[in-house]
Amino acid sequence: ARGRDLEGRRILVTAGGTREPIDPVRFLGNRSSGRQGVAVAARAAARGAEVTLVAANIEVPPPDDVRVVRVSSAEQMAAACAELAPRHDVIVMAAAVADFRPEHVQEGKIKKEQTGDDLTLTFVKNPDILRNLVIARVPDQVIVGFAAETETDDEARLELARRKRERKGCDYLVLNRVGWNEGFQREDTEIQLIDEHGEVVAEVVGDKVSVADAILDVVAPER
Ligand code: C5P
Questions:
Q1: According to the record, how does the cofactor bind (predicted)?
Q2: Which residue CA neighbors atom 5 of ligand 1 most closely?
Q3: Whole-structure pTM over 0.90, yes or no?
Q4: For residue 178, what pLDDT is reported?
Q5: Residue 128, annotated ligand binder?
Q6: For residue 131, which atom of ligand 1 is closest to its CA?
């Protein structure tokens, strides 16, 4: 029984997929449903934490008992996180942030009559929100990243995750396998939680609520 074991903890969670505007009516998005991040926020709140959810595009309703900050693009999410992060003890970056955004947002709708038979868009890199939060981290703050990988070989996937955790500098990394039929938009999932030594400290196959609890058990206790 976990009860209200996270009372007094302030937890910031990001969830969902960002949308990068192309023109007033179009965007570049991804298949993240936000379910995992929303489950982390819901479980953290149910366990007594004070929770802020920075929600990009989510396909499930946000929990009632959390503060919700709505964003759309990666740049908006970066700004919201930079402002909110210092007031939180734990940050869980479950959002699927677009790595790139269109270099120019067209003022008006792109019209096929003007573009001819093909269309080329140039993309520029988005800020790495997680990396920037790690650089700006306040004392005793725990930062958790996610890695959604399509690599099918278990050992190779784990190695990708270890390298990603090192690159980002976060305390923990949640690895999950995604593909056309795994991960995104599903109720069930399979994760491994890696610590700063690259050790697998939790492994869960189950619904996203069980995964959320398992992640919080490791990353959120009072230190
Ligand atoms: O580099 P990659 O996108 O695989 O890293 C995934 C982790 O980094 C996730 O926690 C995601 O929320 C975060 N991320 C970010 N800013 C980006 C890209 C990813 O914070 N621009």
A1: Binds 1 FMN per subunit.
A2: 147
A3: yes
A4: 83
A5: yes
A6: 20
